[in-house]
DNA sequence: CGATCCCGCCACATT
DNA sequence: AATGTGGCGGGATCG
């Protein structure tokens, strides 16, 4: 019947040929349709339809409902086309025949005509983008479906996506309320924030690490609850918590997916997200297992979502050229900044930034844990977190600012990194067991580790959990101080990894991101042009008004001088902030993983690590902390880009501000280098932050670039399993060496955009923390402080290394250490971890206590339970 | 042939 | 049980 209908009905609609024109035209001249007798002949199934048609008619007559629907379907078009409709019924008949035939031929309804995107446009066309606040338009799914001549199912697809952006909301069965785009910016903002948290987590993770996580986590999930009240529309990813009771059904994946997808864009510096990456990131659950099919399905859904988003003019399709070829991708063309900015009225404002840094730290771990914890969650988080890709890709789409684009690309890469890595790995390793590292995490065949990635993070948390983050900080400071550094330093640059020194050990599978926030304003200024020239940047910094620096300091970095005092709380804060600033993402990619190897740092083999390509273009505007600027102009990313490029003073300044603001929230361009470990050999995985000042980084030998760079090198024991991260950048204004040199040496491209100081972050197994140095070295050269003290051994090491080139730099920069794990040697067992995480994580108001309840739910599954709960449930079950 | 993604089955949710 | 929702993936179509 459907077929008939369609054929019948559809034909009527002029849509096919030139939908627009014809329809309109037809309206005027309906008559011509009738003429062609051909219809019968041509039409494929002439016979059937006739009878059917009759039936239809009858049926419709019989049931009002049916009739309505049918009518609408049929009528609508006809109506549009022609006014004849006076006698709809009878006419329809005729018309149908005639028109049908013709159309039929013409149309050949191309698939495109029926595309979801087109449908969505039609749908959107029916409602005002900015409806009067007062008027509430309700949308009846049936009605719309019939009007648009599609099955309801399709409408659901559209509405679900729109709902995710709060353009509509469901009021009742079959009824949706149209809100229009009034809240769009707010929604996007929220999503951005949430996205930062979620996806940025990893990135952030390092940044704020301790503090943040907690908050994030807590905030995210918890916050929503309270906030939700306030906010009219927003529910993000995890709305469930709050409304848990209400939540019904499994989390509508399409909706959530849509939000996540959008988040990826918002978080992505480049604003370009490739489908495959998005799919990977969005895939949760058992990734490994099904993978392919699942991936495929996910991609399909993404297309659905993308079509709708495209119709909303939020994204556009582009292609990213990668090593392997071009990949489909989408670029965000919607608003980048949101007026609402800092906080939302809704109350839930503080997403990430607002939180006090101190507190944040605590959060972070949780988050991670949480994510890691459950399989689901874990996966999700995991996936989410990883942003970058190791590989480089180009965006072909824009000619304009290739340069930036690239940078952006990188950023995006980072973002995607994880995903990509995973993919690669997967691809590379066909064997399931080995599978991609990423995948590992979640599923991890090895139960032991499976927890690892996250767990580690968790660990700290757990320990600390009650108390606070502060602990870590304090600890860190202590720990760091140790004179260790000296030892660490190696003579030539080869960094030896000290077994003792633990940096990060991540299971190979895990990825980490560091975000190099880049610097603040300064950075941005310098960056814009070409990151390439380190010197310039340095100069620029110098040029930069101190005030700016101060500001920065005040905000994020407490005081430059602070560095010296690690002990001070301020330092802690600084850390946090700093963390914000520079982040780098790292993804470890390990071909194969051996848990043991991972755990044992062993000696770092100095085997040369490869530097894989990394370009780090740093150009990205620094993320200034300035977030607060009052200026809230929304910038388009484009503008920003331009701005950066152009560097007009005026604009720049303004731009900076904007950027800074935004950046504050988000990590910006991650600049990082990824070093890939050589495969079988022990290799070091490490990332270097791109920010580093060229000078700092002089790498003499390609061999051990790492040393020279203030980065952390992680030795991968057997494998390159440990990823590591490091980031800091040091910039050394003092002796900025053209990055070129650096790059040359290493073969990497660094652009050092950041001379600016980025604070380096280190992650160490030891929890350490970081004393901070002033964030802006250049600014306060005077008080370089002797951060070294604080520095962890590693740092020290790095510093030492650096020193060679520019000791000052090292010193000057604030370093942040994160403690990821304790000695890697003892991997946590998932189980053990789990509980803690579990609790911490999952407690949702509803869930809190009773497993029993959950159990019940299990039967039904999640109806009531919020998604979170569901997850929990799942996890709980699975663990057993 | 890979990228898209329409179509609609069917399971689950809600009424 | 009927109906609403929407996950899901086969397979058609596009490029």
UniProtKB/TrEMBL annotation:
Domain E2F/DP family winged-helix DNA-binding: 111-180, 249-334
Main location: nucleus
Pfam family, any one: WHD_E2F_TDP
Molecular-function GO terms, alphabetical: DNA-binding transcription factor activity, RNA polymerase II-specific; RNA polymerase II cis-regulatory region sequence-specific DNA binding
Disordered: annotated span: 1-50, 63-92, 334-359, 382-408, 536-606, 622-658, 847-880
Positions in coiled-coil regions: none
Matching Gene3D superfamilies: Winged helix-like DNA-binding domain superfamily/Winged helix DNA-binding domain (1.10.10.10)
SMART domains linked: E2F_TDP
Biased composition (Low complexity): 538-548
Entry superkingdom: Eukaryota
Positions with biased composition (Basic and acidic residues): 65-77, 639-658
A GO biological-process term: sprouting angiogenesis
Intracellular or extracellular location(s): Nucleus
Polar residues bias spans: 81-90, 343-356, 859-880
Swiss-Prot/TrEMBL keywords: Activator, Cell cycle, DNA-binding, Nucleus, Repressor, Transcription, Transcription regulation
Family: Belongs to the E2F/DP family.
Protein name (record): Transcription factor E2F7
Species per Swiss-Prot/TrEMBL record: Corythaeola cristata
């Amino acid at each position: 019947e459907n077929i008939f209908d369609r054929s019948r009905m559809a034909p009527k609609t002029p849509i096919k040929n030139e939908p627009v024109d014809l329809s309109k035209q037809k309206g005027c001249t309906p008559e011509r349709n009738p003429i062609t007798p051909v219809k019968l002949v041509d039409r494929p199934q002439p016979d059937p339809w006739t009878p059917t048609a009759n039936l239809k008619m009858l049926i419709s007559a019989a049931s009002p409902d049916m009739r309505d629907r049918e009518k609408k379907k049929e009528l609508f078009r006809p109506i549009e086309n022609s006014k004849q409709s006076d006698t709809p019924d009878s006419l329809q008949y005729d018309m149908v025949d005639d028109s049908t035939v013709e159309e039929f031929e013409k149309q050949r309804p191309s698939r495109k005509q029926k595309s979801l995107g087109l449908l969505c446009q039609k749908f959107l066309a029916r409602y005002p983008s900015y409806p009067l606040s007062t008027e509430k338009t309700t949308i009846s799914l049936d009605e719309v479906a019939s009007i648009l001549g599609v099955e309801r199912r399709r409408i659901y697809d559209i509405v679900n996506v729109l709902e995710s952006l709060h353009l509509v909301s469901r009021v009742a069965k079959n009824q949706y309320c149209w809100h229009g785009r009034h809240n769009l910016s707010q929604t996007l903002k929220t999503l951005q924030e949430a996205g930062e948290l979620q996806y940025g987590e990893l990135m952030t993770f390092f940044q704020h690490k301790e503090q943040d996580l907690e908050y994030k986590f807590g905030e995210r999930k918890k916050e929503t609850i309270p906030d939700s009240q306030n906010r009219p529309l927003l529910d993000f990813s995890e709305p469930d918590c709050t409304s848990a009771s209400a939540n019904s059904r499994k989390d509508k994946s399409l909706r959530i997916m849509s939000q996540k997808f959008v988040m990826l864009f918002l978080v992505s510096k480049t604003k370009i997200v490739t489908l495959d990456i998005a799919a990977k990131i969005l895939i949760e659950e058992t990734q490994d297992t099904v993978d392919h099919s699942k991936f495929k399905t996910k991609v399909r859904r993404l297309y659905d979502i993308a079509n709708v988003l495209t119709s909303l003019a939020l994204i556009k399709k582009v292609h990213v050229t990668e090593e392997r070829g071009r990949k489909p991708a989408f670029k965000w063309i919607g608003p980048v900044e949101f007026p609402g900015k800092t906080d939302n009225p809704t109350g839930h404002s503080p997403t990430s930034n607002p939180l006090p840094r101190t507190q944040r730290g605590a959060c972070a771990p949780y988050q991670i844990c949480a994510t890691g914890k459950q399989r689901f969650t874990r996966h999700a988080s995991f996936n989410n977190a990883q942003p970058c890709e190791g590989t480089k890709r180009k965006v072909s789409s824009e000619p304009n600012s290739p340069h930036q684009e690239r940078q952006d690309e990188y950023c995006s890469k980072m973002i995607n990194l994880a995903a990509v890595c995973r993919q690669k790995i997967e691809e590379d390793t066909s064997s399931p067991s080995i599978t991609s590292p990423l995948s590992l995490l979640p599923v991890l065949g090895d139960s032991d580790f499976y927890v690892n990635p996250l767990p580690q993070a968790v660990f700290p948390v757990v320990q600390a959990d009650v108390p606070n983050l502060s602990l870590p900080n304090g600890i860190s400071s202590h720990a760091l101080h140790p004179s260790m550094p000296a030892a660490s330093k190696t003579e030539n640059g080869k960094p030896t990894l000290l077994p003792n020194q633990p940096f990060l050990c991540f299971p190979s599978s895990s990825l980490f991101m560091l975000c190099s926030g880049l610097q603040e304003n300064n950075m941005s200024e310098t960056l814009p042009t070409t990151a390439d020239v380190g010197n310039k940047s340095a100069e620029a910094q110098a040029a930069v008004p101190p005030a700016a620096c101060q500001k920065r300091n005040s905000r994020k970095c407490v005081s430059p001088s602070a560095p010296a005092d690690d002990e001070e709380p301020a330092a802690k804060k600084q850390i946090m902030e700093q963390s914000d600033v520079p982040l780098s993402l790292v993804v470890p990619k390990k071909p194969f993983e051996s848990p043991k190897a991972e755990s044992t740092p062993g000696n770092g083999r100095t085997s040369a690590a490869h530097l894989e390509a990394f370009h780090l273009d740093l150009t990205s505007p620094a993320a200034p902390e300035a977030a607060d600027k009052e200026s809230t102009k929304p910038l388009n990313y484009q503008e920003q880009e331009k701005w950066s490029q152009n560097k007009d003073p005026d604009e720049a300044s303004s731009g900076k501000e904007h950027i800074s603001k935004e950046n504050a929230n988000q990590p910006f361009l991650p600049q990082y280098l990824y070093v890939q470990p050589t495969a079988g050999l022990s290799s070091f995985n490490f990332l270097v932050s791109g920010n580093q000042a060229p000078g700092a980084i002089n790498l003499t030998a390609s061999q051990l670039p790492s040393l020279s760079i203030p980065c952390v090198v992680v030795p991968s024991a057997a494998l390159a399993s440990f990823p590591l991260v490091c980031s800091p950048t040091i910039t050394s204004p003092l002796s900025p060496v053209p990055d070129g040199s650096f790059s040359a040496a290493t073969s990497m491209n660094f652009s050092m955009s950041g001379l600016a100081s980025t604070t380096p972050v280190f992650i160490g197994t030891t929890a350490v923390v970081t004393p901070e140095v002033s964030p802006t070295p250049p600014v306060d050269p005077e008080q370089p402080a002797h951060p070294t003290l604080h520095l962890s051994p590693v740092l020290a090491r790095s510093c030492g290394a650096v020193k060679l080139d520019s000791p000052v730099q090292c010193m000057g920069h604030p370093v942040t250490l994160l403690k990821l794990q304790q000695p890697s040697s003892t991997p946590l067992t998932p189980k053990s971890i789990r509980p803690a995480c579990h609790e911490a994580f999952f407690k949702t108001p509803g869930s809190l206590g009773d497993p029993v309840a959950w159990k019940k739910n299990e039967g039904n599954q999640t109806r009531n339970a919020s998604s979170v709960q569901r997850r929990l449930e799942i996890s709980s079950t699975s663990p057993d």
